Amino acid sequence: MSLPSLYDEEIIERAKQLSSSLLSDVMGRKGAMDPEIKPVTKGKKVIGTAFTVDLEPGDNLFLHEAIYLCTQGYVIVADGKNHKQNAYLGELMATAAALMGVEGIVIDGLVRDRSSLENIDIPIFAKGFIPNGPYKNGPGSINTPIVCCGIKVNPGDLIFGDEDGVVVVAKENVSEIIELAEKKANDEKSRLDFLVSYSGRKLDADSIERLKPGFLKIRHRV
């Protein structure tokens, strides 16, 4: 099976300096998965090339297959159909994925072994926890277009997850979106530095006017 092309290390390193919010903003405030999807692993981002898995509800056979096909650089994105009766993975599968070099796993569904997953090396994003284990019968598919948590994901798209959620950047737009997000990050830093420069000052009417964002000033002039 041919795998999606990985992104250059330079692209990944640049992406690591960004956030899901910045990426979503420059994509027209779109691209974010359902807010139910949350990081299970504390304090970790996930960034990499989408390796997609289509799962039968409550069945993780093809998720097992995906783990052993993956290498470093890939994020497994699994459409679990928002199934809430069975967990799709736990500590054993997450440990195997980490050994294979998988960058992270995003699942439209539930997981288990919470205390272990919260502290494991590999970032896991899921919708919650349940003790019930999965079936292993299939069917399923690997590296086909899927919809995960309300967002279309194609093999090879860029996946970015942090504490705010998971964003998908279409592979054909990655360079442009990263460049736009970098510019927005610089603009926001300048704005934050300006705000912080007023810390401890007594604010008069002129100061408040200077502190207002540009869009408010324009609105008040109309």
Summarize the structure.
With 222 residues, this protein is of the alpha/beta class. The chain has helices at residues 9-16, 20-26, 61-69, 91-100, 114-117, 174-196, 205-211, 214-221, and strands spanning 38-39, 46-55, 74-87, 104-110, 124-126, 140-142, 146-148, 151-153, 158-162, 165-169.
Walkthrough of the structure:
- Helix content is 34%, strand content 25%.
- The chain contains 8 helices and 10 strands.
- The strands form 2 sheets. Strands 1, 2, 3, 4, 5, 6, 9 and 10 form an 8-stranded mixed sheet that branches. The chain has a two-stranded antiparallel ribbon with strand order 7-8.
- The protein is elongated.
What tags apply to this protein structure?
222 residues, 25% strand, eight-stranded mixed β-sheet, 8 helices, two-stranded antiparallel ribbon, single chain, 34% helix, 10 strands, alpha/beta
